[in-house]
């Protein structure tokens, strides 16, 4: 049995972890950790004109930016609201906020059972059994959240991918000693999430939160840059060009309301800098930021790429302190 099998035996004292323990609880393909320095520059520009802000994230995913903001700028955040169209993920955030100890108990049992198996074949069979149980389970948010975390830590590359029926179908990840239950992180995040409202709706429903002291960070499902790069069908409904255009209309409303937005998305521009987003967001600030793609169907497609940060920087001057 691996050392991690005993990780969840920690007591509630772990909830007194420092702010450093506030960080994403999921592995996540396309997480924004690499973009944080560029995003932080934007945040600092905003905080030059605002002492406190409302933070809104309509596509929260694994929450890399959310937890960064809570960890480093929590004293400046008066209220935060997050949203995700995936109901299982939204329920997982709620479970961590309201029922962290129950979640830790469920994860501890899964972790203990997983590490009783020593062969890769037996662990794979256990993984597939729990994947089937996850897809069939309804109505028990704590157990479903525990299975989500278990699958996330043991599946291939932390992908969240579903088929046309909405069933999670990512294969086994073959990790030797995955950290399945990280009690200190769960407890630290639970404490940090006490000031966060958690929604499960379409991003357009967050229009009511537009105000001059609101910072919107938008991380929608990326527009694929090639036929082989659409690796993570995050929701069975998908997020196509029409949705990207709806999001642009939402950003226009954010801008008209005097709020500040920063959006990350793929860079599909050509050698002359022309592309879908350059045309769609003409008039807004568009910056290229280097990132590293870890997942691609072809090994040659992995490595350094550019992503885009799109923002309405002009609103910072309009709302600046006198």
Overview features:
2 domains, disordered N terminus, single chain, Rossmann fold, 10 helices, 322 residues, alpha/beta, Adenine-specific Methyltransferase, domain 2, 36% helix, 7-stranded mixed β-sheet
Characterize this entry briefly.
Helices cover 36% and strands 14% of the residues. The protein is built from 10 helices and 7 strands.
What this model shows, in words?
The protein is an alpha/beta fold. It has two domains: 24-85 and 201-318, Vaccinia Virus protein VP39 (Rossmann fold); 102-183, Orthogonal Bundle (Adenine-specific Methyltransferase, domain 2). 36% of the residues lie in helices and 14% in strands. It has ten helices and seven strands. The protein has helices spanning 36-47, 64-73, 87-98, 100-114, 120-136, 141-154, 183-192, 241-256, 276-280, 314-318, and strands spanning 53-57, 77-83, 196-199, 214-218, 260-266, 285-293, 303-311. The protein has a seven-stranded mixed β-sheet with strand order 3-2-1-4-5-7-6, sandwiched between helices. The protein starts with 35 loop residues before the first helix and ends with a helix. The model is unreliable at 1-7, 9-17 and 296-301 (pLDDT under 50).
Question: Could you outline the blueprint of secondary structure elements for this entry?
Answer:
Layout: H1 36-47, E1 53-57, H2 64-73, E2 77-83, H3 87-98, H4 100-114, H5 120-136, H6 141-154, H7 183-192, E3 196-199, E4 214-218, H8 241-256, E5 260-266, H9 276-280, E6 285-293, E7 303-311, H10 314-318
Parallel strand pairs: 1-2, 1-4, 2-3, 4-5
Antiparallel strand pairs: 5-7, 6-7
Helix pairs in contact: 3-6, 4-6, 5-6
């Amino acid at each position: 049995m691996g050392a991690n099998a005993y990780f969840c035996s920690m007591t509630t004292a772990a909830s007194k972890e420092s702010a450093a323990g506030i960080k994403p609880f999921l592995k996540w393909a396309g997480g924004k950790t690499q973009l944080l320095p560029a995003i932080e520059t934007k945040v600092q520009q905003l905080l030059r004109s605002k002492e406190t802000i409302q933070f809104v994230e309509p596509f929260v995913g694994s929450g890399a930016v959310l937890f960064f903001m809570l960890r480093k700028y929590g004293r400046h955040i008066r209220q935060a609201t997050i949203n995700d169209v995936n109901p299982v993920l939204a329920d997982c955030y709620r479970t961590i906020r309201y029922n962290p100890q129950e979640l830790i108990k469920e994860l501890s049992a899964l972790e203990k059972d997983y590490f009783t198996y020593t062969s890769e074949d037996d662990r794979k069979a256990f993984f597939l059994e729990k994947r089937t149980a996850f897809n069939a389970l309804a109505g028990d948010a704590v157990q479903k959240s525990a299975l989500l975390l278990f699958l996330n830590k043991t599946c291939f590359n932390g992908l969240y991918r579903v088929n046309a029926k909405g069933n999670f179908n990512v294969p086994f990840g073959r990790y030797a000693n995955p950290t399945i239950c990280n009690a200190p992180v769960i407890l630290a995040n639970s404490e940090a999430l006490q000031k966060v409202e958690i929604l499960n709706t379409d991003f357009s429903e967050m229009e009511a939160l537009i105000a001059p002291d609101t910072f919107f960070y938008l991380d929608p499902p990326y527009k694929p840059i090639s036929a082989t790069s659409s690796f993570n069908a995050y929701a069975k409904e998908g997020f196509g060009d029409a949705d990207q255009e709806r999001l642009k209309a939402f950003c226009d409303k954010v801008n008209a309301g005097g709020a500040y937005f920063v959006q990350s998305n793929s860079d599909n521009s050509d050698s002359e800098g022309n592309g879908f987003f350059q045309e769609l967001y003409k008039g807004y600030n568009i910056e290229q930021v280097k990132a590293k793609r870890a997942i691609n169907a072809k090994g040659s497609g992995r490595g350094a790429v550019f992503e885009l940060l799109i923002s309405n920087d002009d609103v910072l001057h309009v709302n600046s302190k006198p």
